[in-house]
Amino acid sequence: MVATGVASASTLETVKQRGSVICGVSDGLPGFSMPDERANWTGIDVDTCRAIAAAVFGDPTKIQFRSLNARERFTALQSGEVDVLSRNTTWTLTRDASLGLNFTGVNYYDGQGFMVRASLGVKSPKELDGATVCIQAGTTTELNLADYFRANGMSYDALVFDTSDQTIQGFAANRCDVLTSDISQLAALRSKLDDPSSAVLLEELISKEPLGPVVRQGDDQWFNVVKWTLKAQINAEELGVTSANVDEMKSSENPEVQRLLGTSGDFGQHIGLSADWAYNIVKGVGNYGEMFERNVGPDTPLGLPRGMNNLWNNGGILYAPPIR
């Protein structure tokens, strides 16, 4: 009832009147959403939020961040505390169909894995029978772990924490033999260890974890704004449009680039935005590839490869419908 009542108002109009987008992010995950000592937030999920603000206002700084743990994230969105949830959240049927929420797309394709102490010499999750596992509460990770161990006839002892920071602290204090989560999150948490080389990420993944932004059901216009913000970034990368060359590309004769940047047609009107909405996204935040590389790519502490998160025509599965 609460979610329906909140969504019945126009979120886009509420956001415009307020002058900022309120975005729910994680309580601290390097590469995805993490504040520095000056409370400046960085990460893929943070950049997704800034891209939405750029689409709406032409200004990626018109954003407010709300730090949310896994237990409170959906309630915060349902109640209207935040306009959008961009918090390494897995898209599942139950979450999409029973919580009054809509997933708007995938900004990172992931999978659940395991991090173990290098000194244990473990090479496969199938060697973890009887292990004590550190895990975060309120996540799909708990369910996947139970399914995997049961399917392989193994047992484990779960040590459950409320936050991701608590899980890595438990691992660092030798309270568990292994930590399990999305592999990207494990890479982020390993970077927090005093000696990251003391921990190993096992290669085998045990689940599909499509992560992406979420909005309330019942407001199709806002759903489209958030959905097409991400798709504009993916299309921009495919078309070779970057934050560095976007002004030059406005004179491109490629009709796809012209439609993307608003120099031909006014496609923003269909979602309540200006004609240059996608130009503002790329100018202020960059295309998807830029967002990936600066936050989690090979030259960052996480050092993650593009893998599945590459474009469909470059060995990955990223694919966006056309703007036309």
TrEMBL record:
CDD domains: PBP2_BztA
Top-rank taxon, per record: Bacteria
Keywords: Signal, Transport
InterPro entries found in the cross-reference section: Bact_solute-bind_prot3, Solute-binding_3/MltF_N
SUPFAM superfamilies: Periplasmic binding protein-like II
Residue ranges occupied by any Solute-binding protein family 3/N-terminal domain in the UniProt entry: 20-249
BP terms from Gene Ontology: amino acid transport
Family: Belongs to the bacterial solute-binding protein 3 family.
Protein name: Transporter substrate-binding domain-containing protein
Provenance organism: Azoarcus taiwanensis
Lineage, opening ranks: Bacteria, Pseudomonadati, Pseudomonadota, Betaproteobacteria, Rhodocyclales
